[in-house]
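Example complex used in Figure S2.
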Amino acid sequence: MHAAGRSLPVGGRRRTPDPKEKLMALTTAPARSTPPTSSAARTKVGVDRIDRKRQRWGWLFVGPFALVFLGFLIVPLAYAFWMSLQTSTLATGTQFTWFANYGKAFTDPIFLEGLARVGRFAIVMIPAQMLVALAAAMVLDNLTTVLSKFSRLMIFVPYAVPGVIGALMWGFLYSPRFGPGSDIFSLFGLDAPNFLSQDSIFGSLVNIVTWQWSGYYMIIIYAALRGVDSSVYEAARLDGANSWQIALRVKLPMISSSMVMVLIFSLIGTLQFFTEPQVLRAVAQGAIPVSYTPNMYAYSLAFSYSQFNYASAISFALGIVVFIGSYLFLFLTRKQNGLK
Amino acid sequence: MKSKILASVGLIAASAVVLTGCSSGGGGGGSSAAASCTNEIVNEDAAQVTVWAWYPAFEAVVDNFNNTHDDVQVCWTNAGQGNDEYTKFSTSIESGSGAPDVIQLESEVLSSFAIRDALVDLTEYGANDVKDKFTPGSWEDASSGDAVYAIPVDGGPMGMLYRQDIFDEAGITVPTTWEEFATAAQQLKDAGTGGVLANFPTNGRAFNQALFAQAGSVPFTYDSAKPTEVGIEVNDQGAKDVLEYWDGLIKKDLVTTDDAFTADYNTSLVDGTYAVYLAAAWGPGYLQGLSDADEGAVWRAAPLPQWDAANPVQVNWGGSTFAVTEQAEDKANAAIVAKEIFGTDEAWKIGVEQSALFPSYVPMLESEYFANLEYPFFDGQQINKDVFLEAAAGYEGATFSPFQNYAYDQLTEEIYSMVQDEKDASGALDDLQETLTKYATEQGFTVE
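Predicted assembly (788 residues):
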């Protein structure tokens, strides 16, 4: 058994730290900077000066990041929010209208339809990615051969391909003329479906995203699995559990917090679905209209129809939905994700 | 202690410089020698005018201009073709800086930018002095009411490019009316070559609109003198008749409905899948740039089929112009560039021979040289004399809406749902009318 090599004493570094402990560490941190009472030579003023000096150094280190953070995230966000409070039309110019754009957004059938569409994508795509990732991670966790390292790399490779390139590549694979579809289907005497038609574009997109992201989620889950103390498995085996039971009853519950994290990642990613449909639109303009997802809608409003104000409102409206969705989800899974 | 504070201030200042460095690009205008040009500036002391354009072989045209002008020089950048460039232009309009002085725009988007106060009315800068140098149709496209928003450069009078070898094989005679065109489509299908006569792309945009216009459809009325009023009639009988005609061909599988300008479509154009390419005058240049062409292809050009052979109607697909932007600091010099860069025979010789452009420039159109030009791609056929000169002369111009991009996107969606059998041609155009009217009203227009 390789178990001996992997088992660590309880309390070893691989143990996930208890959140309460983390909190303790944080609250006790300032205490360390207070000098022991015995050193009477140090006055209170002196301590303050040292503190201040330290803080100055702190600001120096934080400065570059803070500047970029402010300049490229906070300021643009604030500006976009400011823009979203104004209404501008082609013929009548710009007016300050408070939250009128938001009222319009949440009653805009195109936006709501887009939301419903990414909702459907979430229902299909997230379980698909998680199942593939989980299955791959579980299998790899049990393998110890060279093949496992190689397979791990291969499953991860799609994630290393930039999203746009991946989507372009699939665009060619789906193409009735250049793609392998017609060759493969003709082996079985069938006509290849048109992967870019209105009826099949949904599945085609699910396939691209699953192909691209499963490997990434697999790595997260795999890392969590490696973090589990294998003596637990030994104990389970001694108690008579078979491999399936170990996988489903022992491993899965022990990595549930990682699974929740993966789910949150893919949920946010799906709600913001943009790259793949936008790229595929170049070869399927009928099946993927400009307002296919809320993000695409915001993009086309801003850059094709020059409605920057309403586009900002749509972006923030989507942000609100993503925030509420993620919060609700984290709240519902608080037992599994350790945030309780 | 002080030095440390200074150091940290210095570091922050340094990162601030890096940050602002990103936003200080663009601008242009004046005689800033720092602007990065794709071409070489001949006369360093002269005022420079920045130009965005995507014409092929444009550098030679720019060099020609710079060599012949002492007081003004062109600094050219290719900022992308069509929508890629428009997106950048649109963003710089919104941010108030970063636009070039002179910009290549297709005539269909001029109103959309003019309504955002982004373009200069060139009548103040002597545009009407050069009016006679351009075809009436192209001038009409570039103006709105009395205002002239751009100087026309090239046009896209439409014709029919076809494969003589495939026609011969299937025993088809060249159709001159759309009725004959439908018969030819049936003939080709019966011949069983596997290809179709033509493609009717749902995302044809200006192509589809041009075919509608041939049957008398006038989708928009708009005059920039009354910028808040727009007339919309995209569902007139002309448009409905044309779309019903194509719907009929589609239903009988006589034509395909592949998206235009994809890799699939490009290959189908040249490998014999489509026997006919309903094209603008820039089409031959486009065809020659495509790969995977049939070895034995024999291309010929013929006039576009007509609805009524006795009263032919000529239409136009595409074509672009040079406009002067409101952000230009030196508008007079910018206007000189817009008027003169394609305003000489030398420039047009480059344009015709190297860029395969079809001029809107009358002296070139009237020249013996242009009429007699033999095209090797067409085995020496004089396609200008045979087809495109007449088409260009007959084109009367069109009016585009100030939200043309939206209108085309919606047209694409409606034609696609027609192809998907969700609605008939008439219903699709009625829905389009409703959508566009609603949009225009939302955008603050009075819809007539």
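The longest helix of chain A spans residues 44-84. The CA atoms of residues 166 and 212 of chain A lie 8 Å apart.
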